[in-house]
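Changelog entry: the Sugar phosphate isomerase/epimerase family protein record was regenerated in this release. Current contents:
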Amino acid sequence: MTAGIGVMMYTVLDQARADLEGTLARLAAMGYLGIETYGLVEHFGPARVRDAIAAAGLTLTSAHTPFPAGPDAEALLDANEELGAGILVWSMEREEFDSPDAVRRGVERVNEAAERAAGRGMRIAYHNHYAEFSRRFDGQQAYDLLLELLDDRVLVELDAYWAQMGGADPAEVLARLGDRVRLVHVKDGPAVSYEHDVMVPIGEGGIDWARTLSTPSGLRWHVVELERLHIDTFEALRRSYDHLVGRGLSRGAHVPAPIEERT
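Regenerated structure tokens:
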């Protein structure tokens, strides 16, 4: 079955903080099926965010939240349990890919989070940036070392854009991840600079999304994330939806009319 289409709420964080219910309703009206939370629970509290998602008829795909490890673990788990999150997504820091030992130390935190989350019936998912793919140790890609060390219960959210910027082929990465990958961040642009890239609507940049998203994998959700836009955010989300759902790459609430039929 084609994966559902969602939105990473970092994309509309300012709008959601100003009008949570209205922003979610607007995303649902476009045809988006789900959202990945970011920065909302801290602002509104988990109960209001949970209720607003339900009122909009959306699904909570995942919660983008720090790994529940260390002294803050139980508070993070409490909040996400009240939110109703089943998958908690976060990343290791760029400097944690400076050496194999740094990777091993960082993974200890992720695996602790996986153990603690399992006790609450939740799963951890690892979200990459570019260092995981750009750095190699004795010929081995840092991402491969990471996957070897991660607890088998840790799922994957692949950010295909940053993977490509790190020198990887996102389609090949998805193929070898198999059922372990459940979510993919879908963004588009030049894929040349982590700090300075300006994103564009999906299908208008340098990522071959048709090839990437047609690769057999365990994906359940295509989560659109657009950062540093030079056009209206909702317009960019609409054009992204039309591209992904209109071409049958993602599943939405409705199929957009062909371009020539739109007014």
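The two ends are 31 Å apart (CA to CA).
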